From TrEMBL:
<dbReference type="InterPro" id="IPR003439">
    <property type="entry name" value="ABC_transporter-like_ATP-bd"/>
</dbReference>
<keyword id="KW-0812">Transmembrane</keyword>
<feature type="domain" description="ABC transmembrane type-1">
    <location>
        <begin position="139"/>
        <end position="427"/>
    </location>
</feature>
<feature type="transmembrane region" description="Helical">
    <location>
        <begin position="138"/>
        <end position="160"/>
    </location>
</feature>
<dbReference type="InterPro" id="IPR011527">
    <property type="entry name" value="ABC1_TM_dom"/>
</dbReference>
<keyword id="KW-0067">ATP-binding</keyword>
<feature type="transmembrane region" description="Helical">
    <location>
        <begin position="180"/>
        <end position="201"/>
    </location>
</feature>
<feature type="transmembrane region" description="Helical">
    <location>
        <begin position="252"/>
        <end position="277"/>
    </location>
</feature>
<feature type="transmembrane region" description="Helical">
    <location>
        <begin position="364"/>
        <end position="390"/>
    </location>
</feature>
<dbReference type="InterPro" id="IPR017871">
    <property type="entry name" value="ABC_transporter-like_CS"/>
</dbReference>
<dbReference type="InterPro" id="IPR039421">
    <property type="entry name" value="Type_1_exporter"/>
</dbReference>
<keyword id="KW-0547">Nucleotide-binding</keyword>
<dbReference type="Pfam" id="PF00005">
    <property type="entry name" value="ABC_tran"/>
</dbReference>
<dbReference type="GO" id="GO:0005886">
    <property type="term" value="C:plasma membrane"/>
</dbReference>
<dbReference type="GO" id="GO:0005524">
    <property type="term" value="F:ATP binding"/>
</dbReference>
<keyword id="KW-0813">Transport</keyword>
<feature type="domain" description="ABC transporter">
    <location>
        <begin position="461"/>
        <end position="694"/>
    </location>
</feature>
């Protein structure tokens, strides 16, 4: 039976496991239920004005339930104290978990809360799916490791006859044949050389396999990231994702190629050494095992603290890389507003936080490792004492004692090395967890099981009663729209009216929450995502250019385009002339995010990129809003070539830029409120008329200011 903690409409109830009696606390002013976690253990504390009434602990697997209980407790307490009915207190609730929300709250604090559960060492076993293709190499490496370890066990055993049959007799004046000495020394040399060759081959083969495992892991993670929807990236920081794909996979590669193979070698060495020791002298072998229970207890004690600590280190390191990922791409803004000191302070604070978390782990680890070394030294001292006593009794020879000491030294050395694996294992488990957090995430825009093939696309678009939510916030609702092939429509409305969201839904960057969007009579969710998007050309308000040549950026959507096709697209986009003025023409390098080009030049390259793939559906999202009037005319001429014969959806704040649209669709608060041509909508004197008049007044004010 589990313990139960229940929030009713009148009181908080608790029943301990195995107990039938309930404790209760009636709701009253000043009663507080607090939630927090420390070192991976969650806590719920019940307090009032007098102090702590009760506390409960739980694993973080129950964390969401605990958060929900606290929120429900607060709602019931407010209802009981204020006298308002609970229905009124909970009138705004999350549709998924029914948690209470503030009147203007858009995101549910429970559904959107990230729960950081400590990584389990078992997470590392999930890497087998990446190791499976290399199981032959891994098996060969393991066999070589067994043979190499066996070869390394020969030299201590040869010390028995060397001491008992050579050194001691020689010390007592007996004649020893040089050939006998040569055979023993040759055996030592041969065993050493064989162990070296086998160890080299083992290390090389396992390193090759582990690097390939890590490379496959890195590639799979990146490819999975590319398949995730924009919704996933909206809640992630660039620096954190870079850290996961880059440094975390490198950490796993080092663990597999170095630490894990060393650990396996240590285990084999310990087993072989234990077998040899028991065969030589069981009593001496049993004395050797005296420190093991203490070392095992220390490993168990430290392992959990290291596990939670290293996972926290990874999160904090993500904060450091996030500052870099924010600042370096936005360095122009930083310098423009003279915020270098502020960004340096942000980095310093994040780095200091990282240092503090590492210091906590180092305090634990700095005590653990020397303690293990001390225990092994004490164990070796006990073995020496017991061995000398056995030699004095004549139960073992001096050579056997020295050989046993050599084996025991190796045993304790490998035991100490194995204890150190706790640290790197927990670090690698944390890294694996962060990578599998990406791989386990299912895209909210899934591929169809049996995709409908896209043949010749006509470009007819139907939006049927579409609704969409960002989290708990309803953005679009009840939108119905029909766009004929080759028709150009303009989406207009105030900021936040849902224009860009509708375009994102048509591009299938997100999936609709309600209704459906059809292209040529087929639900777009039935098309393969890549096939569908290859028929869509997108020109954004802020065009993104990649680091590379002008030609590479134009040909991004069609990598195998010929130079003639690239130039033709640039001519149609009115970009050819300014490209030729660049030092290397089409082979001129573009800086990261288009550095070195003006906004209008970047936009025309973006239009050329869209022209080259010859899309049937064209999306223009504020394509001319961030340029001057002269550049806007150039872009408008380029757009005239782009929209010919294509189904076009254009968003523009400047209503004058939509004069060529066949139809205008006015959105307000996520709904279509008007639809028609410019003249028809102006005659209605409705929402569009008010927008147009407001813009005209603003333009007049701007012109007066210019005078």
């Amino acid at each position: 039976m589990k313990s139960l903690l229940v929030a009713t409409n009148e009181r908080l109830l608790y029943r301990a496991a195995g107990n039938t009696a309930w404790k209760e606390w009636a709701y009253r002013p000043g009663l507080v239920l607090q939630h927090h976690d420390h070192a991976g253990v969650g806590h719920l504390d019940l307090l009032d004005g007098q102090g702590l009434l009760a506390t409960w602990r739980f694993t973080l697997g129950q964390n969401l339930h605990a958060i929900r209980l606290v929120d429900q407790f607060g709602a019931h307490l407010e209802s009981a104290v204020s006298g308002r009915p609970l229905v009124q207190a909970l009138k705004n609730v999350c549709p998924s978990c029914k948690a209470p929300l503030e009147p203007d709250q858009e995101q549910c604090p429970i559904c959107t809360k990230v729960v950081h559960t400590p990584p389990s060492t078992w997470t590392l076993f999930r890497l087998w799916r990446f190791a499976k293709p290399y199981r032959g190499q891994l098996l060969l490496g393991f066999v070589l490791m067994l043979l190499g370890t066996a070869a390394s066990q020969v030299p201590p055993y040869l010390t028995i006859p060397l001491v008992d049959k050579v050194l001691i007799p020689f010390q007592n004046g007996q004649h020893i044949e040089p050939v006998t000495i040569a055979w023993y020394l040759s055996g030592l040399l041969g065993a050493g050389l064989l162990a070296w060759v086998l160890s080299w081959a083992k290390t090389y083969i396992l390193a090759l396999a582990s690097e390939r495992i890590a490379a496959d892991l890195r590639t799979t993670t990146y490819e999975h990231l590319l398949r995730l929807s924009l919704e996933y990236f909206g809640g992630k920081r660039t620096g954190d994702l870079l850290s996961r794909v880059g440094s975390e996979s490198d950490r796993i590669a080092v663990y597999l190629s170095l630490h894990l193979t060393d650990f396996a070698s240590d285990v084999v060495m310990i087993v072989m050494t234990a077998v040899i020791l028991f065969s030589m002298n069981p009593y001496l072998a049993l004395i050797t095992l005296v420190p093991l229970p203490f070392i095992g207890w220390m490993i168990h004690f430290v392992r959990y603290r290291l596990r939670t600590g290293f996972e926290k280190i990874d999160r904090v390191w993500g904060e450091v890389t996030n500052v870099l990922a924010d600042t370096i791409p936005g360095i122009r803004v930083v310098k423009a507003f003279a915020q270098e000191q502020r960004e340096a302070r942000r980095f310093r604070d994040a780095n200091k936080h990282n240092l503090l978390v590492n210091d906590r782990i180092n305090r634990i680890w700095s005590l653990f490792s020397p303690s293990v070394s001390l225990l092994t030294e004490i164990g070796l001292l006990v073995v020496w004492g017991f061995g000398i006593w056995q030699v004095s009794k004549g139960e073992i020879t001096v050579g056997m004692l020295l050989a046993a000491i050599a084996y025991i030294g190796r045993f304790y050395g490998r035991l100490d090395s194995m204890s150190r694996i706790v640290s790197v294992t927990q670090k690698s488990a944390s890294a694996a967890k962060r990578i599998f957090d990406i791989l386990d995430h299912v895209s909210s825009v899934p591929e169809p099981v049996n995709p409908v093939p896209m043949n010749k696309v006509q470009g007819r678009i139907e939006v049927r009663d579409v609704g969409f939510r960002y989290g708990n916030r309803e953005v679009n609702r009840g939108i119905s729209l029909s766009i004929a092939p080759g028709e150009m429509i303009g989406l207009v409305g105030h900021s936040g009216s849902g224009k860009s969201t509708l375009v994102n839904l048509i591009c299938r960057f997100y999936d609709v929450s309600e209704g459906a969007i059809l292209v040529d009579g087929v639900d777009i969710r039935s098309y393969a995502i890549a096939d569908y998007r290859q028929n869509i050309g997108l020109v954004l308000q802020e065009p993104f250019l990649f680091f590379g040549t002008i030609a590479d950026n134009i040909a991004y959507g069609k990598p195998h385009a010929t130079r003639a096709e690239i130039i033709a697209a640039a001519r149609a986009a009115h970009a050819h002339e300014f490209i030729l003025r660049l030092p290397q023409g089409y082979d001129s390098m573009v800086g990261e995010r288009g550095q070195g080009l003006s906004g209008g030049e970047r936009q025309r390259i973006s239009i050329a990129r869209a022209l080259l793939i010859d899309p049937r559906i064209l999306i223009l999202d504020e394509a001319t809003s961030s340029v001057d009037s002269e550049t806007e005319k150039e872009i408008q001429r380029a757009l005239e070539n782009l929209v010919k014969g294509r189904t076009t959806i254009a968003i523009a704040h400047r209503l004058s830029t939509l004069h060529r649209a066949d139809r205008l669709v006015v959105l307000d608060r996520g709904r279509v409120v008007e639809e028609g041509s410019h003249d028809v909508l102006m005659a209605k004197e409705g929402a569009y008329f008010n927008l147009y008049q407001a813009q005209a007044r603003n333009m007049d004010i701007d012109m007066d200011d210019a005078r």
